[in-house]
Design brief:
The complex is a heterodimer of chains A (230) and B (404). Chain A is an alpha/beta fold and 230 residues long. Helices cover 36% and strands 27% of the residues of chain A. Chain B folds into two domains: 2-49 and 255-402, no CATH class; 62-241, no CATH class. Helix content of chain B is 57%, strand content 19%. Chain B contains 16 helices and twelve strands. Classes of the chains: A alpha/beta (230), B alpha+beta (404).
Chain lengths: 230, 404
């Protein structure tokens, strides 16, 4: 099943002044269960592509479909609601709400979705266990390491059972051990539960774990590398 | 959850929140004190005027209001006076004769209003008998006793036992005069009043006027001032041919003064609320700008703009609510303390005298003011939150997340 599909996606910044063509007619399909990395040099457009796929930004031209739905025509408020129900995010930093505990952070999106308390609590504990943080449920982000925070972020991204998870440089601020730990969890969730992950990354360790690597350069996909299970 | 997040967000920067809370507490405290002090000054002025001579209600012939001529008199009977005194809520009723004339000593003369009073009845409606600083109030012992204010005594260069001559026109239109002996000197703290009034026995004055039973005025003092309107209506019913007026109708300057104080209290409140408003806007704007990335993340994961807006507004309201109670309590406590102890303004006695105010001011505040203040703070908090909240929802998640 195609989870993400872009057709002729173009993004031009400052069209009236000095136009910057961040993306030039990108066609892309990502299927359910993929573990895909989008790589490229700085300024290649990978973050722009991820933002457009995630509904955080709009293409100048082209169509973006998530789960078959064209999201490029949705209003801002509709996009917010769509993201809440269909897309999980793991950012490079500032993933978590500082004043909430790990448990509250993971349950946050489900609260926005108005899920019943019992269902929320069960799912939260299940996810925190899956990321190995069942003993940190009452800790606030400031009381956790960077790696632990990112694991909580992954749990939170999964909580709403999204169609896929977008991770923008998720390991950029992590040490080697934390990176390995995080990637193990993500790979496990991908393999065992079929959760689709799309990364934007420079990190070779992430690239090495991806089963599909799309290389972007100057706003265009220049190569695609499909690997066997890693 | 939004409430939870908002409450916890307030305490992220304890110093900054503490400063804002402190400012709001001080602002509310200062405002309560200012309004209560102004109110106390008004009360002092109005009460002095009522207790010195005006009373809560006055009765005259209608024409007397336009032209205080001695011909506009009436003759209250003892039965009528007794009936009026028995009205519930009435402390005392005193008939008075009023004449404008001259008072002269061997050293000086001065224009003055001469009031002929029944000493026993007058003591039930006026505080003058309690403000005698030298001598005594009008007694039956002396022939033609007279009581004047300290300021007038100084002007005339007279003292107790001094003789003065009162000169005025009688009911026949003739200029008449009578010699009176000063038995008492009073000091009300109102220099204008003390300079312009002289009190004699009503019988003595009426004898000179040429008609013993007349009065130009009835003055009422109420034990239940809140029932003023009702009592006024009742008295008017009993005396349909006469004009029955409340103190604010008799002395419109009292009403004007009360209104001016109300207006200045409102202006104080607006100024202080404006100052608080800018403080709140500044603090919340800083809080929002500091959290741009976090807000961008919240919107990215699915928190809609309405919730983000509500969160910011809620934070502001909570911040103000935390400050409101201590501010109100401090204000209430200060008013309660000084309402009993009084604030000594004797350093400004000269100025206060000119305006008829006492040297000790007792702050007072109606309880409705506390409610109005609470509402004003709530409105200010909401208004203060609007711009920062709008700023929060105006940002685009993709830009906010990338913000350095």
């Amino acid at each position: 099943m195609t989870v993400i599909e872009t057709t002729g996606v173009t993004k031009v910044y400052n069209p009236d002044k000095i136009a910057v063509h961040a993306l030039k007619g990108v066609d892309l399909k990502i299927e359910a269960g993929e573990f895909t990395a989008i790589v490229g040099p700085s300024g290649s457009g990978k973050t722009t592509l991820l933002n457009i796929i995630g509904g955080l930004d709009r293409p100048t031209e082209g169509v973006v479909k998530v789960g078959g739905k064209d999201i490029s025509t949705l209003t801002d408020n509709q996009l917010i609601d769509f993201r809440k129900d269909h897309i999980g995010f793991v950012f490079q930093a500032y993933n978590l709400i500082p004043v909430l505990t790990a448990k509250e952070n993971v349950g946050f999106v489900m609260l926005l979705q108005k899920r019943p308390e019992a269902e929320r609590n069960a799912r939260v504990m299940e996810l925190l266990k899956a990321v190995g943080l069942e003993d940190q449920i009452d800790k606030r982000p400031s009381e956790m390491s960077g790696g632990q925070q990112q694991r909580v972020a992954v749990a939170r991204a999964l909580a709403s059972k999204p169609a896929f998870i977008l991770a923008d440089e998720p390991t950029a601020n992590l040490d080697a051990a934390s990176t390995a730990n995080l990637l193990d969890i993500m790979a496990k969730l991908n393999k065992e539960e079929g959760i689709t992950f799309v990364f934007s990354t420079h990190d070779q360790r992430v690239i090495d774990r991806a089963r599909r690597v799309l290389t972007l350069d100057d706003g265009v996909i220049i190569s695609e590398d499909i690997r066997s299970d890693s | 959850m939004i409430t939870n997040i908002a409450w916890r967000n307030i305490w992220r920067s304890r110093t900054r929140s503490g400063v804002v809370i402190g400012a709001i507490v001080l602002g509310i405290w200062a405002l309560i004190f200012m309004i209560s002090f102004s109110s106390g000054m008004v009360d002092s002025y109005v009460n002095n005027a009522i207790e010195n001579s005006i009373g809560h209600i006055q009765v005259h012939k209608a024409a007397f209001k336009e032209d205080a001529d001695i011909d506009f008199y009436f003759e209250p009977t003892a039965e009528l006076l007794q009936e009026l005194r028995s009205i519930s809520g009435v402390q005392g009723v005193a008939p008075r004769s009023l004449v404008n004339g001259m008072i002269g000593s061997s050293r000086s003369t001065n224009g003055t209003q001469i009031l002929g009073v029944n000493p026993e009845a007058e003591q039930m409606v006026s505080s003058i008998p309690n403000k005698i600083i030298d001598g005594e109030y009008l007694s039956q012992k002396t022939k033609n006793p007279l009581v004047i204010g300290d300021a007038l005594a100084k002007k005339l260069k007279v003292k107790i036992r001094s003789k003065v001559v009162l000169t005025f026109q009688d009911l026949e239109g003739n200029i008449t005069a009578g010699a009176f002996r000063i038995v008492g000197i009073f000091d009300t703290g109102n220099k204008l009043f003390d300079e312009g009034m002289a009190f004699v026995r009503r019988n003595d004055l009426n004898n000179l006027l040429g008609n013993e039973g007349i009065a130009h005025e009835l003055s009422f003092l109420l034990s239940e001032p809140d029932s003023l309107k009702a009592i006024q209506a009742l008295v008017q019913k009993k005396m349909p041919n006469l004009l029955v007026e409340s103190y604010s109708e008799v002395s419109p300057d009292l009403k004007l003064y009360e209104g001016q104080i109300q207006t200045s209290a409102t202006i104080f409140m607006i100024i202080i609320m404006l100052a608080l408003l800018f403080g709140i806007i500044n603090t919340m704007l800083m809080a929002v700008l500091e959290r741009f990335r976090e807000l961008g993340m919240l919107m990215a994961v699915g928190m809609n703009k309405f919730r983000v807006f509500s969160m910011i507004v809620l934070e502001t309201i909570m911040l103000s609510a935390v400050a409101l109670l201590p501010g109100l309590l401090l204000g209430w406590g200060t008013v309660k303390y000084y309402a009993q102890k009084g604030i000594d303004m004797s350093a400004f006695s000269k100025g206060l005298e000119q305006f008829g105010m006492a040297q000790i001011v007792y702050p007072s505040l109606e309880s409705v003011i506390y409610q109005q203040l609470a509402l004003a703070v709530a409105i200010t908090a909401v208004l203060g939150a609007l711009y920062p909240a709008w700023k929060a929802i105006s940002l685009k998640p993709v830009e906010a997340i990338r913000k350095i």
